Amino acid sequence: MGQAMGPLFLFLLALLRLWASQALSTCKTIDMELVKRKRIEAIRGQILSKLRLDSPPQVEGGDAALLRLPEEVMSLYNSTRDMVRDMVRQQEAGKPRESPQDEYYAKEVHKFSMLPHSPSGSARSPQQCAILGFTGIQ
Q: Which GO terms of type biological process are on file (predicted)?
């Protein structure tokens, strides 16, 4: 009988702890939708205060007026979008993409001879010439 009391005792102890934790919990659950709505309202209030407005401006015609764009704006947008697509296609077809590191450095290296090479090995005096030395350039 002593062995059967051990698991029963542990079960009752766990049940007691669960009941005690529920009794001590006085916090209400958080409604995340309510928090989200309050946050949006606070942000709207901040925007209105920065614009020095008491309430949102009233737009004539409602939201439908905001959705209509002039024909010139739409044609400009469409032509720009098509031009960008064509440029991307040309770049992809023309050559493989380079890494950003390869794009950073120059593609061509030029060698400049700053002093005429004399067979005797003598050069002018240092006061008369400027020498720029580049090493490692081929």
A: regulation of cell population proliferation; transforming growth factor beta receptor signaling pathway
CA atoms within 13 A on the CB side of 116: 4
Which of 107, 119, 117, 115 lies closest to 134 in space, CA to CA? 115
Classify 33 as helix, strand or coil.
helix
What pTM did the predictor assign?
0.30
Cα 124 from chain centroid (whole Å): 58
Radius of gyration of the chain, Cα coordinates, nearest whole angstrom: 39
Cα dist from 54 to 40, 42, 60, whole Å:
16, 13, 18
Distance CA 132, CA 138 (A): 15
Cα–Cα distance between 94 and 91 in angstroms, integer? 5
DSSP per residue over 57-79, as a string? PPPTTTHHHHH---HHHHHHHHH
Tens of pLDDT along 27-72?
A: 777 889 999 999 999 999 999 999 999 888 887 766 666 677 888 9
